[in-house]
Design a protein that fits this description.
By secondary structure, this protein is mainly alpha-helical. The protein has 11 helices and 3 strands. 63% of the residues lie in helices and 2% in strands. The chain has a 3-stranded mixed β-sheet, with no helix packed on it. The two termini are 38 Å apart.
Length: 331
């Protein structure tokens, strides 16, 4: 708060002082003065520069999400260029080497993508079922720290249980745990059905296009081209996770809250697109290098979960952008 102060000026010739007004440019800032003895008090004040915290907590401007939109547009342009570059066959890609794969490698990749498709179908079915059941919908749509902690615990815990179990062909405990995990994920995203069928349908179509294009890039690129992205992706995941936590405390109507939400939304979409490139080539690499008669059989469920989570995160963010939550609302 601006301080309020008064100053007394003593001079030898008091009469001259009373007759001559004090120039404004010689008055110190935020001082209350009298130009004449019988004049009312006037305050000469200047607005100080806002602090950093005031700037961060100021209302978000109309271009709060411009940086996120620009980053997404740049990433899309890079993806198109990469698709044209690798698709032109300048470098021998994984797809060109697929005719050299043994049959068991092809069967492993086919089984893995079968589990990916099954995970998406089970998640969609679980979300629709929960949304049409008021009791379950009220349970998963509750706000509060206890609800958030329980939800995160169920998602992370069920995923750890699935990954930690030994895989055996056929239907067994691991397959049952996989069904439970995908059902929990579907229940968690069930409140997104409030966005409406047209938005979710468009989001699913856009997600299919993004996933198809990125998978084509991963297949046309040389083997292991994107496997060196693990460290940058891990650091990006930490940043997006921190931004997601921060946006829970700061509303997106403030400048800082809008920045964190933009990083979580647009940055997360770019991040999980990069994860999809990495995980796609990791599936192929794992299917090629895992011994055919190893101590443990090849696990297609663990390989499928990574791509499944990438696709789910991409779909959720595209749906939020289409709904206008990313500053894309039409006026």
């Amino acid at each position: 708060m601006l301080s309020r102060m008064c100053v007394l000026r003593s001079t030898i010739n008091v009469q001259q002082t009373l007759r001559t007004p004090i120039p404004t440019k010689f008055v110190p800032k935020n001082y209350v003065i009298r130009n004449y003895a019988r004049d009312t008090r006037t305050r000469v004040s200047t607005r100080s520069q806002p602090t950093l915290w005031e700037r961060l907590m100021a209302p978000a401007g109309p271009n709060a999400f411009s940086l996120g939109k620009g980053a997404l547009a740049g990433a899309s342009a890079v993806g198109i260029v990469a698709l044209c570059y690798y698709g032109s066959g300048v470098k021998p890609g994984t797809l060109q080497e697929s005719h050299l794969w043994p049959q068991y490698v092809k069967d492993r990749i086919k089984t893995t993508y079968g589990y990916i498709a099954g995970s998406l179908v089970l998640t969609a079915g679980s979300a629709i079922t929960v949304f049409r059941t008021p009791a379950l919908l009220n349970l998963v749509a509750r706000n509060g720290w206890m609800s958030i902690i329980i939800t995160l615990g169920l998602m992370i815990g069920s995923g750890m249980v699935v990954r930690g179990m030994e895989y055996k062909p056929g239907f067994g405990p691991k397959q049952l745990a996989w069904i439970v995990h995908t059902g929990i994920m579907g229940a968690v995203i069930a409140p997104m059905c409030f966005l409406g069928g047209p938005i979710l349908t468009r989001a699913a179509m856009y997600t299919a296009g993004v996933v198809g294009g990125l998978s084509t890039i991963a297949l046309c690129a040389p083997s292991g081209e994107f496997l060196n992205m693990r460290a940058p992706l891990a650091m990006g995941l930490g940043a997006v996770f921190a931004a997601s936590l921060g946006s829970m405390f700061l509303p997106p109507t403030t400048a800082l809250g809008a920045g964190l939400y933009s990083l979580s939304l647009y940055g997360g979409l770019i991040l999980f697109s990069g994860f999809l490139l990495y995980d796609t080539q990791a599936i192929i690499k794992r299917a090629e290098t895992h011994p055919m008669y190893g101590f443990q059989p090849y696990d297609p469920i663990n390989s499928a979960i990574s791509v499944y989570l990438d696709v789910l995160n991409i779909f959720m963010r595209i749906a939020m952008i289409l709904s206008g939550s990313g500053g894309n609302r039409r006026k």
